[in-house]
Amino acid sequence: MDGGLRLIPNDDFFLLLRGWRDGESRLWVKFLSGALRLTFPCAVYDARDGRVAFSLHAESKSFADFSVTGCMFGFRDVATEEARLPEGIEAESAIEAVRDDFGLLIMLLK
């Protein structure tokens, strides 16, 4: 997933995610690790101390939490076919956390 990654400092990655949280931005996440592949709509719940947590469904308090310790962080372009978003939904921008064992692509929706 890390093709075309434009690196950013770790602090900027977490600052951007907290800004999306505070702005209640709609996101689409794509997670890849070995045989596991997940995609889901969400909002940022929290981002700090090497972890990123997403709220999947506020009413049911469902969350996904990822350790991004040891990752490289950056912005990248996402081709429409790669994003695999539902029809009528588009990504405005994307950031990614990658390391040898996984990739976490976070797309800000328009």
Give an overview of the whole structure.
The chain has about 110 residues and is an alpha+beta fold. The chain has a single domain (about 5-110), classed as PH-domain like. The chain contains two helices and eight strands; from the N terminus they run βαβββββαββ. An eight-stranded antiparallel sheet has the order 1-6-7-8-2-3-4-5. A hairpin with a 2-residue loop joins β2 (about 25-35) and β3 (about 35-50).
Q: State the end-to-end distance.
A: 21 Å
Class by SSE composition: alpha+beta
Mean pLDDT reading: 91
What is the CATH architecture descriptor? Roll
Which band does the percent of strand residues land in?
over 45%
In total, the number of strands is 8
CATH class: Mainly Beta
User: How many discrete domains?
Assistant: 1
Judging from the principal axes of the Cα atoms, what is the shape? globular
The description of the largest β-sheet is: 8 strands, antiparallel
The strands making up the biggest β-sheet line up spatially as 1-6-7-8-2-3-4-5
Helix-strand sequence: EHEEEEEHEE
Instruction: From the 3D structure, determine the CATH topology.
Output: PH-domain like
Helix content: 10-25%
What labels describe this entry?
51% strand; single chain; alpha+beta; 110 residues; globular; 15% helix; PH-domain like; 2 helices; eight-stranded antiparallel β-sheet
In short:
The chain is α+β, with helices and mostly antiparallel strands. The chain is 15% helix and 51% strand.
Strand and helix layout:
Blueprint: E1 6-7, H1 10-22, E2 27-33, E3 36-48, E4 51-57, E5 62-67, E6 72-75, H2 80-83, E7 91-99, E8 102-109
Antiparallel strand pairs: 1-6, 2-3, 2-8, 3-4, 4-5, 6-7, 7-8
